[in-house]
Amino acid sequence: MLEAKQKRRDQLSIIANILEISRGGILKTQIMYRANLSYTQLNEYLSLLLSRGLMAQTVLEGKDTYVVTVEGAGFLVGYRELTKALHGEPAKRNLNFTV
């Protein structure tokens, strides 16, 4: 019988997940549940993302809402390209180079 193994997520995949979830604006508790993070973990990641300018905090209808910035969207694009390159088919490259 095959055992279901849980793979630990790395920090970059968690950050990408939070940014993806927050693209249209979202409440803090919704991020926590959708990203499967504890309250402490969520606060640490939000602090990091806000301080790096990847997310912004706004007040919408009297509630703190978190949304991805242009820089955060750029991070997501780069992250997707990198994971695609690492997990996709290898690119054909010319390895002939001179020294």
Describe, in short, the structure shown:
The chain has 99 residues and is an alpha+beta fold. It is built from four helices and three strands, in the order αβααββα.
CATH topology: Arc Repressor Mutant, subunit A
Strand order of the largest sheet: 1-3-2
Cα distance spanning the termini: 53 Å
Along the chain, the helix and strand elements come as HEHHEEH
CATH class: Mainly Alpha
Q: Given the C-alpha coordinates, what overall shape results?
A: globular
User: Treating each run of at least 4 consecutive H or I residues as one helix, how many helices?
Assistant: 4
Number of strands: 3
Number of domains: 1
The CATH homologous superfamily: Winged helix-like DNA-binding domain superfamily/Winged helix DNA-binding domain
Q: Give unreliable regions as ranges.
A: none
Instruction: Kindly estimate the percentage of residues that lie in beta strands according to DSSP.
Output: 5-15%
Mean pLDDT: 86
Largest sheet: 3 strands, antiparallel
Helix/strand/pairing category = alpha+beta
